[in-house]
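Can anyone check this?
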Amino acid sequence: MKKLLITSIVYCLAFAKADFATAQSLRPVTGAEIIKKSIAFHDPNGNWSTFQGEFTLALDMPEKASRKSAITLDIPNEYFNLTTEQEETTSFREISSDTCKYTDETGEVTTTTTNSKECERTRMYRDYYSYLYGLPMKLHDPGTQIDPMVKNVTFKGKKFIMVKITYDEAVGSDVWQFYFNPSTYALEVYQFFKGTDETTGEYILLDDIALIEGIKMPKNRAWYYNKDDGYLGTDSIVQD
C-alpha cells in the first residue's frame, strides 16, 4: 500500500512538472527577456561595464568627403576620446573625468570642465558613441522603458523579433524599435522616431560583427531616413 502511494505521488509530481513546463512554454516572452538574450549574444562575458578599448570608424556619405574617426572608451575611468580625420584636417574631443578638451574650427585647443556648456557637444559625442556601440547592453540604463510586449515582424523582407523602447522624460523623447534575429537574438536593425510620428527619424541596418574587447559590435551600419528610405551613409569598423 505504501509503495503504491509513493508511486502515485511520483506520477502526480511528474504530471505537475509537465503542466508547469507547458504553461511556461505558452507564456508570452517579454521585451526584457529578449534583450537579456541579446546581451548574452553580444556581451557573453559581461565585459561592457568594464570596457576599455579603441576602435576606428570609416564613414562614407553621398557627396561628402569620407571621414575616419578613432574612438577610445574607458568606462571605469570615465575617459572618452574622439580623434577625427577629414580632408587632411585632424580634430579631437576628449573627456577625462571632470576635464573636457576639444579643438575648435581654428585648431586651437580649449580646456574646460565636463559639465560646462562649452563641453556640451563633446558630451553629446561621448553619449552617442557609447550608446550605439554599447547596444543592447545600454538598454539596461536607468530611465529606459522596455515594452513588455514583443512583436514578430518582417522588416525589409526579413523576419525579426521587435522590441519597443521609450525613455523617461528626463532622458529623451525619441521612440526606438530594436529588431532581433529570432534564432541568435543578435541585434540587426534599430530605428527611432521623433515622438509618435513614424515618418520622422531614421533606421539603421547592421551587418557583420567586429569583436572589440570581447564585445560583438556591428561592423557596418547603414543609415536611412524613415520617410523615404533616403540613404544617409555607412560607417564601418576598420580592423587590420
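Reply from J.R.: I decoded it. Residues 9 and 15 are 10 Å apart (CA to CA).
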